[in-house]
Amino acid sequence: MPASLPDHARTVIIGGGSIGCNTAYHLTTLGHSDVVVLEQGQLTSGTTWHAAGLIVAGLLTSESDCAIYTHGRDLYARLEEETGLPTGFRDVGYLQVATNPERTHEMRRGAAFMRRFGIDCHEITPAEAQEMFPIGDLGNVESAFYIPEDGRANPVDLTMSLAKGARMRGARIFEGVRVSEILAANGAATGVRCADGRTITAENVVICGGMWSRQLGAAHGITLPLQAAEHYYLITEPIPDLPRDLPVLEDPSTYTYYREEVGGLMLGLFEPGAAPWNPGAIPDDFQFGEITPDWDRVGPHLERAYSRVPRAMEYGVKKLFCGPESFTPDLAPLVGPTPELRGCWTACGLNSVGILTGAGIGNVLAHWINDGLPPVDVTGINVNRFARSEATPAFRRDRTPELLGKLFGQHFPDEAPKTARNVRRSVLHDRLAAAGAYFTESHGWELPDWFAPTPEQAKIEQHSWFRQHWWDWHADEHRAAREDVIVMDMSAMACFQVEGPHACALLSRLSCNEVDVEPGRVVYTAWVNEAGGFEADLTVTRLAPDRFMVVVGENSRGHTEMRLRRHIAEGEFVTVTDMTAGRCQINLHGPKSRELLSRISDADLSNAAFPFMSAHRIDVGYADVLAMRVTFIGELGWELHVPATQAVQTYDLILEAGRDLGLRNAGMQTLNSLRLEKAYRDFGVDLDNTDNPIEAGLGFAVRLDKPGGFIGRDALAAISARGTPCTRMLQFLLSDPEPLLYGNELIYLDGAQVGTIQAGGYGHTLGGAVGIGFAECDAPLTAEAIEAGRWQVEVAGVRHDATASLKPLYDPGMEKVRA
Fold it and tell me: Which residue among 552, 580, 608 closes a domain?
């Protein structure tokens, strides 16, 4: 029995692998020295010990991903000097190859984005790549990309070095101590109980248990949807003259990475059709363990892997290794405070890149614990983004086989998962399918992406970065919204009823805008943190003096609910009820929407009786409906919140009434193109927790003089007091109608790189690709400076002239919205 366990620690970390030791290391660098790490076996004995140790950037698609990666690479390069223990880090370089034009296009986009954030990814010729990787057969390679600073490390040595660094600053690490229970009281973690009965009280409990994290969390009602899968690599016998500093090669066409290993070659597989491992539970005593390889299943994948290095087949197989790695449903880690238990944090589900991202994730979590706020955008990795349905055994079994291949293969915009679908469906799903809907997926919801003329045509044979076969159908939906009328099923929007004697006080405290309004008013508002960074953007509708409705995008459901519940003050009485499943949100938009709605309702829909940003209960056929006159597309329109039991009848009534008005169903592609023409913002897509409403152009929704203030008021007041910002969110329209924008394209002002497009689409009304993004300059970005400058946007290495604007390029005066 390990001796000398303390009775108390400020922070207890469960798990002594890469992420646990990284979290301890980074907490201690912040002066947070009272840290205890508990490892049930030996350090690295879970999955860290058999990791490949690749320190390679891959294809990063967010600023926070780049920050997480570069922090780790830089730390690993200097850690040995600090601790005196070797890490095995060698900057041997990193090659990615493309074998088709689509992958080349993807890489050119990604390389430019990564260079902006300090990752020197640049294109080289296939001949240059062949010279760098002489054992490979690169005959079918069309292009290649190289990062000279990337490389590899020894995972065990690296983790031991991190552990020493943490100990040097006061952390205590105990091996052979299994945590059997997270202690809790009044909804907050208070410490841990070990399997031998000993307890440690703590202010913070951090779950860094790798593939064991899910079952530990589940025992305490915490949702951690991750699943272990079989992960293979093969090591050949030594190959004569194989360079020790051979660069790491990644090849999406074979779903394989290649690197030197003790004179031989390692072939690491990320194959499609992977196998989940132990969906029920991971054995506690599985330490330094291996899984018996399934030769029949992996044989074809190995054959494809060898096709890139056929010379390697002349040498024997030294080892075919199979070990478990844990993966999450969207291939992003689970990081942050758990919604279910205050004082409980997690960093797990690192998707086979725990060595690569461990330092960056550990740094983010350490700052979050120590400072109260994360140092980077965490909207894509926040543990609160998932629902319990995505942690069920059936979901994990079905989704996991797709994940390894998706992690390593070629990527396309708007490509949705193919497995574990139909988790959440609107009651209108069958109607929409019969109308020709092609469904995408978001946070478990089936969403109509676009509509084909017939159900049989609603399919994609091959995704592309360029115009696809559904382009014209989507354009027709867009034009119908601008010229006639569209109907959209927006039932995935999360809807919360917030009521009680202190409901107004809670929402006023959270909201930048004034929500203490008369019943029947809809208020658009941001929620921000103490530093002024976004936590949500949403609508708050006052239904009665003590009752409100909060409506937010499906991507923010978990975060919004967590923020609501966590900010109910002691002594306040407020109930928060998720109403999403009980109602269907049907949106009507377009210049003919009033005419259509008036045909099926006796309500007075005039501007005087039903002005913009108001809500009333109205009749729609037999249904009693809460109607809100709001828009996310920039046209006259209403959100109809219909009881789920009457939604199908209401939808059918709308279709019949709009038949002669040019009514069309419209999907998410059209929603995106319409809202970007109007420059409407979307938290979690083009806004994140490092942005603020002042620089994002949403100052109109911030009431700095609001009685009682709000969370983040002082930070926003300080930003506003500086005058015209040097960083501003602008709308961009490409002059050339051919290129497409998706996000992450670089922005140039007078030849200087000043920012990136956050989100892009095609403005069928404006006549070109349109996007919104932040421009960061040394001087204030006044309207005059924006008008005078020459703006360009780079798409796959080519710069295109663009119009930049502070105001929406479509209907800047809001005449259509208020019609």
Answer: 580
